[in-house]
Known about the structure:
The longest helix is centred in the last third of the chain and has 19 residues, at 297-315. Helix 6 (205-221) runs parallel beside helix 7 (233-246), helix 8 packs across helix 9 and helix 10 (297-315) packs across helix 11 (326-337). The protein is 36% helix and 21% strand. It is globular and about 65 Å long. The protein is α/β, with parallel strands linked by helices.
Amino acid sequence: xxxxxxxxxxxxxxxxxxxxxxxxxxxxxxxxxxxxxxxxxxxxxxxxxxxxxxxxxxxxxxxxxxxxxxxxxxxxxxxxxxxxxxxxxxxxxxxxxxxxxxxxxxxxxxxxxxxxxxxxxxxxxxxxxxxxxxxxxxxxxxxxxxxxxxxxxxxxxxxxxxxxxxxxxxxxxxxxxxxxxxxxxxxxxxxxxxxxxxxxxxxxxxxxxxxxxxxxxxxxxxxxxxxxxxxxxxxxxxxxxxxxxxxxxxxxxxxxxxxxxxxxxxxxxxxxxxxxxxxxxxxxxxxxxxxxxxxxxxxxxxxxxxxxxxxxxxxxxxxxxxxxxxxxxxxxxxxxxxxxxxxxxxxxxxxxxxxxxxxxxxxxxxxxxxxxxxxxx
Length: 377
């Protein structure tokens, strides 16, 4: 059998990350007829390993069909960006898998990689979940409804969610790690609306009042197990106020630091646009573009993912107060929603605002609150 262009859709997942894992892949022709399906349980592994295994299976199937050109579509931003060459492969578990996928891709005349929302990857997702069921020893034939492991959920609108309760529209199980995402209070840089990345401005009087208002909210609410903060001064000042009220130490995590805006740090939006008009315009729409001497949003995402995974491994099932900056908080919300990069440009977060994201041990996630400032009124 010989084909010209085919579509490969692949997915993988892990219930526990790491935990019982599996992948699924499907190959379609241009009319969306299924040409091949692959699924396999792979024992205990992470989501990312399973997603790469799904890609490898899909490329292998496309090669067996004699395809010359392949359009790969996945809901894994990490795999798509790494295979496209825009993100570096750093994790030792990913390096051999990426190399294997690249070797398979080299047999085709062309291969494109496209990120798609999870809802558009339902065929491969179903196959991956069937494989995960097998890895976990679940007999899906005896279930009245299919077992699934969604990794996203719509944001809820309640102003102060309860600690216990359903994860909403997800089928996730287990006790989540709840992250109370607090942006730091006002600084002189934020008053003037200047890019403020790795500099260390202190809080203004209003900023200290905002930190105190957040601390009072957390003190009356209780239930917080640990406080984790970016090491920059403005976040530490904000976190220290809550630490005083809650009687907890502040644990610094470098992965939560703000974007490095490079030579734009300290400039206003207008000043940066005038200084580097073409670059600034590109930066506003492309997450791979870096400010001069700075850091791209894609690079921020990589370290925030690593920080999230570290926190989940260290504080799994706990409620954490995470004090950080606008970009890392947006990124954590983006990860919980499995949303595309446009969220970074469209979501507004006020100073000292609170957002809440939950990450479940089976890989699911939900967002309970976004940009709440009721403690500042």
